[in-house]
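Weekly structure sync, notes
Attendees: PL (lead), two postdocs, one rotation student
Agenda item 3: pending single-chain targets
PL asked that the sequence for the first pending target be pasted directly into the notes so everyone works from the same version. It is reproduced below exactly as submitted, 139 residues in total.
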Amino acid sequence: MYSIGQLSKRTGVKVPTIRYYEDVGLVTAAGRTSGNQRRYGQPELEQLGFIKHARDLGFSIDAISSLIDLQSHPDRTCQDATDIARVQLADVRDKIRQLVALETELQRLADGCDGDGIAGECYVLAALGDHQLCDADHD
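Predicted structure, written out during the meeting:
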């Protein structure tokens, strides 16, 4: 059995986050000792590892909840899991596209100023103050 602190150390998930996962139903609520301390077993350790890995990959709490539900029905098709992973992949690709556009604009801003002038004539400062000086929309 693990205390919440031990579980946190073993998984790298912070104690408040473990409590939150319990509150939203991702992790089974821990049993309590006579001293009212939470105690977790191997299944909770593994479940928390699954959740942490999924969060590290950017899956939402709702997606993780759906994936956990699929885990509890081993006889069901894995198409739902594949669909959830594909949605996450599309989201990541969209973020990458946005980051590449942001990188391009920031490079253009940095290249627009050699750094030798005065702040009153700085292109970087002027562009930050006037969105019309940007090449692309990056809201």
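Discussion points:
- Helices lie at 4-11, 15-23, 42-56, 61-71, 79-111, 123-129.
- The mean pLDDT is 89.
Action: rotation student to compare against the earlier draft before next sync.
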